[in-house]
Amino acid sequence: MSATKIGCLVPLNNDFKEDTSLSNLPLSPGLNVIGRNNISVSDKRLSRKHLTLTAAADGSANLLVEGTNPVVVKSGDQRKKLKSNEHVSIFDGDIIELIPGHHFFKYVTSLSRKRPPSFNGGTDNEESITLNFPAVAVQGLPGWANTCSVSIGDVIQGDVLVAILSNYMVDIDWLMPACPALAKVPHVLVIHGEGDGTLEHMKRRKRANWILHKPPLPISFGTHHSKAMLLVYPRGVRIIVHTANLIHVDWNNKSQGLWMQDFPWKDQSTLRPGCGFENDLVDYLSALKWPEFNANLPGLGNFKINPSFFKKFDYSSATVRLIASVPGYHTGPNLKKWGHMKLRTVLQECTFDKEFQKSPLIYQFSSLGSLDEKWMAELSSSMSSDVRCSLEGYAGGSAIPSPQKNVEKGFLKKLLPRYNGQKLAWFLLTSSNLSKAAWGALQKNNSQLMIRSYELGVLFLPSMKRHGCGFSCTNNGDPSKDQRGLIKNPEVQKTNLVTLTWQGSHRNTDESSEVISLPVPYELPPQRYSSEDVPWSWDRRYTKKDVYGQVWPRQVQL
């Protein structure tokens, strides 16, 4: 264990008072093994590796049951029994029963979770832009790597009146304790892509005021893969588009992208027509076909919560364009409405600097479909050694579900660069993996676009400005904190999109230019694969041990 201590497990007696006859168990950042070897109690029901606590430097921890006997975690007035291989997030003050009803320990952290700067509430517009596109906090990374990062509790906060959560995978047992603010939301709609078994569990576990909805999938092998949130507040609406499933590992152990922006209610006396962002949003929401429901919003009135409801907000300050996919055979005016044809249409409306002529397209994704050379020109992917040295070791590669037959095509191998940027013509953050099902495939002499899945992304363009990022739904109604319309230099003529690795020495000193940093975690251009680099695939055998001493496929010891 590291010499740095972030907290301890405090033994309790049956009255939940501290048991001074036993010693506290110190906890270090990272993996902590709790079991018979370090607990001074005689009970053969305790395994030598009874459970593990993976503690982060911010004080949060993930508890995983390693032994055969169940463990109970008591958080507030909720008590949850965990079986072998089940996990849960725990927080300061939670009580662990190593055996149900026996051997009580309180989780005490010496650190309190530090919340990132208030979203859209600051006075520095450069910071506001960064917080429009923060990273998701990853446990086990050093503090600098989680700068301006957020947890799901940082995103869903404040006086939320209606929450619409759209995702592919939803672990309802993790979601509710990970985001306690949801318990106070009067109306929650969960739009998901789960199968029948998980859906039945969700129905049993959900709160009475939660509505579950799986959008129609008219074409085989399609999924509801979009990852987004719409949060309605007394002051406006918060729109979030991200890449994480609503499960523990995606919000704690994997690097994820997330964009969010708050928008005010429209001035009903001077209703302005819808902008491109509004039209794209309402069109996409309409395709989901969720069951309309009524909501009484205090001080605002009674509303039918349907796609048209979201026309009541002013999106004129949006800093992105929406790029969505919905399943179907799209023809006529709908041909350019979805998938890669929508992206093409928006980009054709833009003018880019000459420096980007013949610049490469760089793709980052976690799943690679079966592609052909005509459909795909250049792409990028994670290589096996990068997976091996990631926070989760080879296990992290199970979220990169590409078999050898897809990643080892000759035309792909010569194009695969290593995970390794600075200046961007444009940037798209999307739930779409690299597949025809997600992006669509042109058919019938390019007159029809066939898409199988629901996807959602946001497109950053040089035309986006810092103004419009200052309005907040959660600044307690203080109008002085709203920075809408404020730009650092009103004479700005040019916007540069850059990655985090862009160095100050490269800055353009022209005061008519502004720089917007996007948290892209690698350098441009990426390094090409060498003859020794092997693309990661989940069905390949890897004998070189990862950071946890594991090979792949993982060998289970009985």
Automatic annotation (TrEMBL):
InterPro entries assigned to the protein according to its UniProt record, in alphabetical order: SMAD_FHA_dom_sf, Tdp1
One GO CC annotation: nucleus
Example of a GO MF term: single-stranded DNA binding
Stretch forming the signal peptide: none
Site positions per UniProt: Interaction with DNA: 435
Cellular location(s): Nucleus
Source organism, top-level taxon: Eukaryota
Keyword annotations of the record: DNA damage, DNA repair, Exonuclease, Hydrolase, Nuclease, Nucleus
GO BP field: DNA repair
Binding site for substrate: 227
Active site: 225 (nucleophile)
PANTHER family attached to this UniProt entry: TYROSYL-DNA PHOSPHODIESTERASE 1 (PTHR12415:SF0)
Recorded family membership: Belongs to the tyrosyl-DNA phosphodiesterase family.
Protein name from the UniProt record: Tyrosyl-DNA phosphodiesterase 1
Species per Swiss-Prot/TrEMBL record: Acer saccharum
